[in-house]
Structures are given as structure tokens and as C-alpha cells.
Amino acid sequence: MQRVVDRLVRAVGTVLIGKDEQIRLALACLFARGHLLIEDLPGMGKTTLAQGLARVLGLSYSRIQFTSDLLPADILGVSIYDRQRSQFEFHPGPVFSQLLLADEINRTTPKTQSALLEAMAEGQVTVEGETRALPKPFFVIATQNPASQAGTYPLPESQLDRFLMRIALGYPDPESERQLLAGLGSQSRLGELKAVLNPDLLLQIQQQVNEVKAADSLVDYLQRLVQYTRDEPLFHCGLSPRGALATLQCARAWALIQGRRYVIPEDVQAVFPAVATHRLSGAGEHAGQDSAALVRQVLNRVDII
């Protein structure tokens, strides 16, 4: 398994240089059957990461550029009257793909954002009273710009909670940026990426994630983390049971990526910030504080044993 993951990371790393940790987190999210939110400044490589993952995982891929005038039908599809057949024919929207890139998702209205809720939660969409299944596997990778930038709409909590993980890419280190300037990580190399997996193998890996063992002591540690977010006055609301389940599933995927069939506390610590930061917000004197910093406090204050 480690060899497969290393091949995936190396492949995507040829177009997104110096971000191996973020690539591994993204893979853990997809292996855990989750959707990924990438939040960062424009030009950091968010779209490149999504496109690279689609290629190396061998998934069918669609992209939607979210704008303020986008409508739900632009995502889901619409029925058009066929005169020759004298009937309406459904034309599927871009959501009917295995990996959907929702680019700059927070630049559209909440009404359009909500068109993805059923798809992300249940792997199906209901259009004009008829429910249609989406391909398997089905992932949404959404990118968003910081809320402080002009023309953005905040994602509702219900929409944020559909994302298993939220990651940021950040500025490249000097050596990686030097390689970018030399053209080694140009987006034009995306077309050279070859599939390392296929959908069937990906589904098998997802099943293997479910089989990774988590000891009772590990679950006790996870429960202490979750309870801390609920009891301490740091946060407006603590992590929900869904957030706890998300952390455990991502920890299982991270353990598998590391070549283990059992979870250790370091696996939980590796994924907890990506799982928790978009689900938690500061309260009282901590309101407006960076949630990532608050989550780090939780990890530092809760004992492993």
C-alpha cells in the first residue's frame, strides 16, 4: 500500500511541487470516502491538486466555475423537450462524474451551494421529482478563497459539515518555488500524468480503510479530544458525533497510507486539524481567532493516555 501511495504522491508532486503532506492528506480524505475543501489564496495550486488527483486516480472529471449567477440546474442538469420524440429528455449536469471540482465554491449564492448537499451526503440527486444515482466512487473537491476577499459568500455550517477535510496549501518553500520558476511544476505537465489507480482499485482501498483496527484506548483518546471541544469555553459549539466519526475514519485512512492496519494516536493527531478546523469556531474572547490555532491547543492540552 505504501508503494502505491508513494507513486501517487510522486505523480501529483510533479505538478504541485513541495506539497507532499497536503497531497497525502487529500488522498486520506478520498480513501475515507470523503469530500475535500481546499481554502487558500488564488494562485496557490488548489485547482492543480484537484486535476492531478483525478488523473492519477483514473477518475472521470468535471469542473464547475462557481459564479454569482450560477443556477442549481447548471450543476444538476435539466430536461429539454425533444420534438422528434415528443418528450422531455434529461441532460445530466457536470455533477454526474466521479470527481467534481467545485472551483471557488464560495463565489456563488447559498441557494446554488445547497444544490450539492444531497449529492455529497447520499451520492444521488433529485431533479424534477426523480432521483438519479451518481457514479461510484463520487467525490467533490471544492476550492474557496478566504472569506475576507471581495465577492465571496460564507458557506453555511450544513455545507461545511459535508466536507470531511479542509486543507490549505500555503506558500511554497524557497527551493520549491525555485523549481516552479524553472518551469518544473508547470500546469502544462498535467496532461503527462498517467493513472496509477482505477475506480475499482480505489473502491477496494476504501474497503480496506474500513478494516483498519482502532483499539479501545485509541477511541478513548479520540473521545477525550471531542469532549474537550464541547466542555471548554474555547468554541461556540463542540464537535458533533459526525465530526468524531470523521476523525476516526480519516485516522484509519492515514494509518493505511502509512502501511499499518491499526490506528495509533499520531494518526489522529495528523488528521484532526484538517477534520476539525472548519467545524469549530471560537467563542467569547476567542471569537474571530484562527480556528487552526485553537485546534492545536486542543491537541496540546489533551493527554494521549
Topology:
Blueprint: H1 2-13, H2 20-31, E1 35-39, H3 46-56, E2 61-65, H4 72-76, E3 77-82, E4 87-92, E5 99-103, H5 110-113, H6 117-122, E6 124-127, E7 130-133, E8 139-144, H7 157-160, E9 163-167, H8 174-181, H9 199-210, H10 216-231, H11 241-257, H12 265-276, H13 291-301
Parallel strand pairs: 1-8, 1-9, 2-5, 5-8
Antiparallel strand pairs: 3-4, 6-7
Could you characterize what this model shows?
Helix 2 packs across helix 11, helix 10 (about 215-230) packs across helix 11 (about 240-255) and helix 12 (about 265-275) runs antiparallel to helix 13 (about 290-300). The model has no long low-confidence stretch (mean pLDDT about 90). The longest helix has 17 residues, at about 240-255. About 45% of the residues lie in helices and about 15% in strands. The strands form 3 sheets. A 5-stranded parallel beta sheet has the order 2-5-8-1-9. The chain has a two-stranded antiparallel ribbon with strand order 3-4. A two-stranded antiparallel ribbon has the order 6-7. It has about 300 residues and is α/β, with parallel strands linked by helices. It contains 13 helices and 9 strands. It folds into 2 domains: about 1-180, Rossmann fold, CATH 3.40.50.300; about 210-300, Orthogonal Bundle (Helicase, Ruva Protein, domain 3), CATH 1.10.8.80.
